[in-house]
Write a structure and sequence with these properties.
Helices cover about 20% and strands about 35% of the residues. It is α+β, with helices and mostly antiparallel strands and about 110 residues long. The termini are close together.
Length: about 110
């Protein structure tokens, strides 16, 4: 099993969620986050005062998937979150040793 974590632009969330549902993903965890990378933030004008916004709003999506589903999930996220502009985000993939469904006690693939 793998943990796929994607950090994307917030306005792409609905497209990404729809693409994930089409490849069979039934659940995910979503966190609203702030951060920066190469995008570095930007300057805004508010009531005549200029200020720097250096931590940009992003959405972090976490999904546990079977090893054989990783490529389909990554492709779905990449294709639906891509704008072709800086700041589109990143996808991280890591190993998961076990998953346990608290309600039933199921483990592994059965608990996903």
């Amino acid at each position: 099993m793998k943990l796929v974590q994607a950090v994307i632009k917030p306005f792409k969330l609905d497209e990404v969620r729809d693409a994930l549902q089409k490849v069979g993903i039934q659940g995910l965890t979503l966190t609203e986050v702030k951060g920066f990378g190469r995008q570095k933030g930007h300057t805004e004008l508010y009531r005549g005062a200029e200020y720097v916004v250096d931590l940009l709003p992003k959405v972090s999506i976490e999904i546990i998937v079977r090893d054989e589903d990783v490529n389909a999930v990554v492709d779905a996220i990449t294709n639906s979150a891509n704008t072709g502009r800086i700041g589109d985000g990143k996808i991280f993939i890591g190993d998961v040793d076990d998953v346990i469904r608290i309600r039933t006690g199921e483990r592994g693939d059965a608990a996903i």
